[in-house]
Amino acid sequence: MKDLLIFEIDGMDKKEILEGLGFLIDENGYLYRDGKPILSKIDNTKVKVEDVEMIVPGSLEVLSDPIEVSDYFSDLE
Amino acid sequence: MSISLVYEILLNLFNKFKDFSKFFIVNPNTGEKIEINDNILKNQKLIGENVTQNINIVNINILPEQIPEESNSRKKELLKDIEKEVDKKKGALNFKKDNKFLTKHLSPQKKELVKNIKKVLKWDEEKISALFYALRICDLEDDQRCSGAQELYNKINKSKKKDLIKKMYNFARSGYLEGFLFKHIFEPLKFTNEDMDELLKFFPEAIWINEDMIPYNVILELKKRLELKINNVIIYARGNNNIATLHNALILLENEWKNITSPTKSYMISNHEKYMICTTNAEKVALELQTLSPYKEMNKD
């Protein structure tokens, strides 16, 4: 596995961070980017703020399921 | 990403935002935080020592600001810098603190097992992901890190793929995975991705008792295997409730033996083992298909 840098930010809530990264959030909490909803890679359902587990900066890939998170890290091996 | 690059990214962020945030290095094993300061950053080696393995977790604690407008623009700047500094496949912004244990390595043996299953049996990514989780729990249990195992189990219970992960856990915990690889040598179509799709629905060689099962369900599962003429079946039970279900199922099975009037095929106990998984009681009963006669039943001891 390559070296990884994982950031955790205290003092900013998740919604604020996601909006700061350029995501749009509708009144029901669903995430959009470039006008398109963010979909979970596991079951293709729309992702809500509360579902977001990790964001990959740079690509702004949204990881919304523990398996996606696990996949992400195992892909790096 | 090398330690020096991690250091460089940290240095840039720290120098730019140290008036606005506190920076900590987090030990992923213990959660212990070490505050970064100018002195620590002067000694690059120290950061390399404090970050465990290859996972570098940085906690940024934003200080309460007096002027909200200024704080908002600084927060945006910080996020922009994180996004800019960390490229795809090199880092992540974590929202759930317990995610970090998913980044840990599996033990070398488990890692080798996953590699072989991927390479030889060609399981798809969904199965491999589930297997990764299952083996991680096994590793934690084998290391007697029972609360960590329970924590991960609770997390899995909330996952959309919990059923698949639990099945993989059963295979892993009961030692079937190595057997899959071994048997595949002699039966090349067995335990491949497609074969596993079927075996995940119904695994003839074993029954794992869960909280939703009553003793009669166990008997029904045995009857399915009897129809398929499966010679050896192992029943696994973990936790006192499931063990009670197992014991009651065995009573039902014994009652069936008592009621036979002609030679009948049934499962007889060939071995009954009690053991512990972490702090939980567990039992497994090996059954063998035999032809019972009323005479044999009377003299079964």
Short description:
The complex is a heterodimer of chains A (77) and B (301). By secondary structure, chain A is α+β, with helices and mostly antiparallel strands.
Written overview of the protein:
The complex is a heterodimer of chains A (77) and B (301). Chain A is α+β, with helices and mostly antiparallel strands. Chain A has one domain (14-75). Helices cover 22% and strands 26% of the residues of chain A. Chain A has two helices and six strands. Chain A has a three-stranded antiparallel sheet, covered by helices on one side. In chain A, strands 5-6 form a two-stranded antiparallel ribbon. In chain A, a hairpin with a 2-residue loop joins β3 and β4 (36-37). The termini of chain A are close together. The mean pLDDT of chain A is 82. Helix content of chain B is 53%, strand content 19%. In chain B, a hairpin with a 2-residue loop joins β7 (264-277) and β8. Chain B has three domains: 3-95, no CATH class; 105-201, no CATH class; 204-301, Translation Initiation Factor IF3, CATH 3.30.110.20. In chain B, α5 runs antiparallel to α6 and α5 packs parallel to α9 (176-186). Chain B is built from 13 helices and eight strands. The model of chain B has no long low-confidence stretch (mean pLDDT 85). Chain B has 301 residues and is of the alpha+beta class. Chains A and B meet through β1, α1, β5 and α2 of A and α1, β3, α4, β4 and α6 of B. β1 of chain A pairs parallel with β3 of chain B.
